[in-house]
Write a structure and sequence with these properties.
By secondary structure, the protein is mainly alpha-helical. A hairpin with a 2-residue loop joins strand 1 and strand 2. Helix 2 runs antiparallel to helix 7, helix 7 packs antiparallel against helix 8 and helix 10 packs antiparallel against helix 11. The longest helix has 38 residues. The protein is elongated and about 65 Å long.
Length: 301
Amino acid sequence: LYDPLMRRAVVRNYADIAYAEYGDALGTAKDLAARVTEFLDAPTDDRLAAAQSAWRAARAVYGQTEVFRFYDGPIDAAKGGVEGYLNSWPLDEAYLDAVEGAPDAGIVNAVAAHPTLGAQLVLDLNEAGGEKNIAVGYHAIEFLLWGQDHRDDGPGERPVSDYVVGQGRNAERRRALLAIEVDLLTQHLTRVADAWDPDEMASYRNTFVREPDPSLAKIFIGLAELSGHELSGERMAVAYETRDQEDEHSCFSDNTHNDLIAGAQGIADIWRGRYGDVRGTGLDALVAAVDPAAAADITAD
């Protein structure tokens, strides 16, 4: 019943999905970078709204890739993993920029401490001194685009003037930081997408598909950790119990519900073995060959 050819087919299809999803995540990140560049070239309400819309679109894709975490793969390997530079949260807003009651807060306003903002500085400052000291990634960009969320019925309302030199305090530094952020986002996603590239002989993917049994274990670890501790625990139960906006995954944009949907969709992609144009043998078929009832129950859930 436990067909070795089926095991190989599942692992190969999983790798194909990983490459496709990270490729799409990179594509949407590049679109976000383009919309941010347009906004910085001429800050207007419409261009800020376009950048925010591009951020939401990028999150919808990236969230589906989180099923590839939790087993020391390319995204979160102990050495060389970039997950901490992409999706770390929760974020202490005051570590990045001014907040209500603290107009001098954050990297943006720390002119004396950090007179010149650059990519390496931002990376070095990420989680320096504390896990909430997030300086880079989707949620740093989110805060820079939306600002603090003081509303119960909507997202943050950062004014365009924050990015207009001569109007917003330290606007030139805020502009520089946002440009650095989106550039780093595309760099880090490029690295992960390349690791799953089937045409690169030395890629992580090629080792992964050559060793189907340990790779299957990793696939199940990713599914179990995302669906259990991470998605239903950290991201849903904590926010539900505390009722604190700061515990929402995307608290500045009010996009948390879509983050949760994307994570669940990523689990479904791998279970069913399909994403976009990729259609192959999924875990559902593999489990059904051993325990049809269990496979049916999981599919129904």
